[in-house]
Amino acid sequence: MTDAANPALSVLLVTYNHAKFVAQALDSILMQLTEFDFEIVVADDCSSDSTLSIIKEYKKQYSQLRVLPSETNVGISRNYERGFAACRGKYIAVLEGDDYWISPRKLQAMSAFLDRNPRCSFCFHRIIRYDQHPENVAVHPAHWTVEQILTANELAGGNFIGGLSTCVYRREIIAALKPQLWELDIREWFFNIVVAEHGPIGYVPQILSVYRAHPEGIWSLKSLSATLPELLRLIDCYDEFLDFKFTTELQAFRQKLAPGLTVMPSTRRVRIWLAY
After folding, report:
1. What is the pTM of this model?
2. Phi, psi of 101 (to 5 degrees)
3. From CA 126, how far away is CA 206, in angstroms rounded?
4. How far is residue 68's CA from residue 41's CA, in Å, rounded to a whole number?
5. Would you say 169 and 89 are in contact if contact means Cβ atoms under 8 Å apart?
């Protein structure tokens, strides 16, 4: 970890009311073993619990932590916008405050992949999806065991990326995104389609992090009746934002979900379609 002006990589830790989980998230960053310098930027969106206090305790020991508090709740999109803008590394690895990494070589592996594949706009890896029920623990993607290069069109056909905490982006591409993007409701599937307009998506088959589904999560354990209308609205919203370049894929996916408004599909089917 470094406080140098030009680190090779930035870790963006995004938090909001993650007091139960943020220490584990920070520990998983601090255990990283790399051949390059990296910085940690923490963007907290005016948490009402003790999240920020926990972060400040870590900063006492690790002064290089750059903490971005907020006096008001700016929302997911604007919190990501200001967090990304504060990052100085060539690459940006995202970690949401309720997830955590499980390999000390995660940053090294992902950075090396992007070094080898300069056309890729970002890369992602496999995850363990964990919730309150042990029988629901699963690896995602389940059967992808070799490196792949994927396209924005493929991603628009259905989300195969297990959350932003698995992704490492090129900072120059994040900086080039349209400012209007941050006015939309940021969700990982749609955000990653926008990024992938700028270059292919790299897939690293190693299992390097845990995605934690819990009641406090924004979408993780909400009822299907609550999430489906919002998802359908977002599909149409992002279809327009993307100038209808991916209409065929997005609307085909939408048609799979639309019947759920009247005849609710099973939780398992929706999770397969959404890929979490």
Report:
1. 0.91
2. -90, 150
3. 6
4. 7
5. no
